[in-house]
Amino acid sequence: DIQMTQSPSTLSASVGDRLTITCRASQSISNWLAWYQQKPGKAPKVIIYDASTLESGVPSRFSGSGSGTEFNLTISSLQPDDFATYYCQQSGAYLRLWTFGQGTRVEI
Amino acid sequence: EVFLVESGGGLVKTGESLRLTCEVSGFTITTYAVTWVRQAPGKGLEWVSSISAGGDYIYYSPAVQGRFTIFGDSSKNSVYLQMGNVRVEDTAVYYCARDARQSHPYFDSWGLGTLVTVSS
Fold this sequence. Notes:
Radius of gyration of chain B: 13 Å
Radius of gyration of chain A: 13 Å
Oligomer: heterodimer
Distance between the termini of chain B: 41 Å
Structural class of chain A: mainly beta
Structural class of chain B: mainly beta
Strand content of chain B: over 45%
């Protein structure tokens, strides 16, 4: 199975900060990576797919980069609505065993 | 507009069975794949199982292979997760989600989830 490792696990930040979350895959997944945002008690919401494509309706302060085994999610200027937990998810596995990272909690 | 609604969660004992239902609208399960993802209390997301559009291909995580069965009913536009021989570690909120595309999917619409609690 492909393991996905996110860092950091928790990130303390302030409104207006620029922050980056990293996701590393245990083997190459090309660009088959998505990022999700989840708020407490809510379902996840996709924000980036194919490593760098912004989902429709998602603010442009979110961006994604990377390929192969290392990927980043960047928020250029953190807004109050962005405090949440973020997960990466790979869909590059040959046997269709999709996996998520363990999550990064962004808190004040 | 796309909606997915899960139901069927509840409290069960180890070794028992439970069937979860994902009723979808705004698309058909003959044209989109559907996936189940679970989240244990206070933990992260875990992919559980997927069924292709039309149901020809089915996939399971190793954690549930042999115990859970996914299937669809196109007449009801619903996907089901039959959970068998449940374990305490199956306790989680179970979400169903739509695969945005057949190959290398990401999940673009999600239900609100249904809670399954397994007690010993």
